[in-house]
Amino acid sequence: MLYYCMVSIICNPTKNVMSLKSIWRPMNKQDLDTFVHLTYEIWPNHWESPKSLIARYHLYPNGFQIYEIDNMPSGYLMSHPGYLNCPPELNETYALDKGKPTCYHIHDAAIVKTARGNNAIKQVWPYILELATAYNIISLIAVDNTESFWSKLGFIPSNFQANYGTHMILKLNKNK
Ligand SMILES: CC(C)(COP(=O)(O)OP(=O)(O)OC[C@H]1O[C@@H](n2cnc3c(N)ncnc32)[C@H](O)[C@@H]1OP(=O)(O)O)[C@@H](O)C(=O)NCCC(=O)NCCS
Question: Which range of residues forms the domain containing residue 56?
Fold first, then answer.
């Protein structure tokens, strides 16, 4: 599923207005090199191996999306079913080998610096909710002080102590 958004920017001092098209689209196998390079650009201090990143993609390709601005890859979503209170480690070759998944996990959602400020995550949020509905709860680990960013989408810190950030959860249907 594609999510489109038109973004207008003032691009030079003569105040010409240039229209840029931003889009979330499914990540496919041809995007994997680009995806790995984006992770290195965005996360110089949280290195994850290509092996673990690509294995995660093959685990659940639907949970992976590429964010493009005028066809330029500018961010990505990396998400998949998971087990509550048992989040993946960085660099882990993750497997769904503990029975039926108990949550939907956002492992990473990241935008290159130059493309931030366009509410990119809000654009892909309905898609994430669609994928997560079956699991009733979304988990993530907020790194680099992004707790307030995720709390605006409804996430709250959980009691689980993660070793590389703050474990946060969002319950989708409290009556279920
Ligand atoms: C966090 C991130 C994905 C948000 O990108 P985005 O969707 O383009 O967000 P925007 O820059 O348009 O900002 C949207 C809102 O979130 C806020 N925000 C952005 N980054 C934030 C951060 N790191 N911490 C807290 N709030 C943040 C903005 O102030 C803005 O608030 P407003 O709506 O009240 O004005 C992006 O900053 C990023 O990729 N950061 C580095 C990677 C990262 O930390 N990813 C999260 C992994 S847990």
Answer: 26-171
